[in-house]
Amino acid sequence: MKLSEEDILFIEDHKNDDPVRLLLSESRYADKNIPFLVMQIVARRQIKDKLPLWYANNRLIFPSRLSAEQCSSELTARYKQLLVATDWTVCDLTGGLGVDSFFFSLKVKRLIYIERYAEYCEAAQNNFCVLSSGHIEIVNANAIDYLDQLPEVDAFYVDPARRGESNKRLFALSECEPDLLSLLPTLWQHASCVITKLSPMADIRQTLELLPDTVAVHVLSVKNECKELLFVLQHDSKTVDPDIHCVNFLSDGSMETLRFTLSEEQNAPLLLAREVGEYLYEPNSSILKAGAFKQTAVRMNVSKLHVSSHLYTSSHLVRDFPGRIFQVREILPFSSRLCKTLHVSVPQANITVRNFPLSVNELRKRTKIAEGGEIYFFATTLCHDEKVIIVCRKVSQEH
To answer: What would the pLDDT profile of 195-230 be if each residue is shown by its tens digit?
Structure first.
């Protein structure tokens, strides 16, 4: 499976065209496989921002739109290299598009890519060759059936399929394919380490109960959108309180990080603010997902507005806070009267709600405030259960 020079030229010439119209005009291109080429165009659009290295190479092949939609980003795939050693043999049981396999292969001694669909294996064969990754062994097989033929490896990587019938999204471990819980006893016969990528919607505490051999959890976000949960398991681990790593990749490629354990969070003091200070802080999505609410206040020397608000404040600027930083301009007690008059003085604002009885849409409807601009509204609850709107401007952060 390779792209011809004519195919590459067609994809380039039509990269901005409407895919539906291209499919409807298939009869005009009798000598071309238009459905396949349109799939390449759509897939390349999907990976343009998250896989710049792959997007820059016009000879790569995408076996399906879904493979491009669900694959790891370049940032998160590179991050996974931190979880393996240079002398390891790693087996990717759920090869897919092969993004994680490729980036693992840049570090480890040997990479075994297993994928049950032949067209995915054909695409991977082409892509790994084009990308000059020569020490990846491609196996077209059902991973569960192939395990008995595997040599001993140092680690398995598993990214269970999270789509069911009618493309329904699945979150429970037992519903995904392969079922990691039933597969683990077999995996432990071949390796001492398992790394699994799970849905960002999965509950971390519940998953830790299902995977007691977990030694670390990595919560990965890209530009403040939570993308992946990585659970690192060690066979017969005695770890009872695994490290949780909160990682947010910023636009410039740098990272905001915070590491904690659930016991540290449980035992940390609750630092509540008596009043809103000059600065307001909103933690990044990885911290919110991981639940490092009290730890964030302790580590960053800031105070929480309310036990359930997950917003923080200080009188001094904490420039390295892992999230967004705002300078407070005004604090408005919330009322029906305020809703009716606020748009007169502030016709446009960015609105966020935290621990507040109204949604963003409901608040916009009541206040008639348009979206956008340089003003930020945080509708929230203070420690004495007072409902307020905090008017802010964003503080630029240099990393």
So the answer is: 999 999 999 999 999 999 999 999 999 999 999 999
Statement: residue 175 has pLDDT above 80: no
CA distances from 328 to 143, 275, 316, 389 (A): 55, 12, 12, 11
113 strand-pairing partners: 92, 138
CB 295 within 8 A of CB 260: yes
> Could you tell me if 314 and 245 lie in one domain?
no
Query: What is the pLDDT confidence band of residue 164, given thresholds at 50, 70 and 90?
Result: very low
CATH of the domain at 97: 3.40.50.150
Q: Are residues 121 and 258 in the same domain?
A: yes
Spatial separation of the C-alpha atoms in residues 43 and 65, rounded to whole Å: 5
Q: Which residues pair with 37 in a beta bridge?
A: none
Kindly report the three-state secondary structure assignment for every residue of 307-365: CCCCCEEECCCCCCCCEEEEEEEEEEECCHHHHHHHHHHCCEEEEEEECCCCCHHHHHH
Q: 34-47 and 5-13 helices cross at what angle (nearest 10)?
A: 60
Which residues make Cβ contacts (< 8 Å) with residue 53, sequence separation at least 6? 74
| Domain housing 345 | 265-394
The helix or strand, by DSSP H or E, that contains position 215, with its residue range, turns out to be: strand 214-222
Handedness of CA 384, 387, 388, 394 (dihedral sign): positive
Task: Check residue 163 and give its pLDDT.
Answer: 53
The token pair at 237 is 């681990």
What stretches of the chain show up as alpha helix (H) in DSSP? 5-13, 19-24, 34-47, 52-55, 65-70, 74-79, 99-105, 118-130, 143-146, 180-187, 204-210, 262-267, 285-290, 293-300, 336-345, 360-367
Q: What counts of helices (H) and strands (E) characterise the chain?
A: 16, 16
| 121/191 same-domain check | yes
Q: What's the mean pLDDT when you consider all of the chain?
A: 93
Examine residue 399 and state whether it is found in any structural domain, yes or no.
no
Share of the chain above pLDDT 70, in %: 96
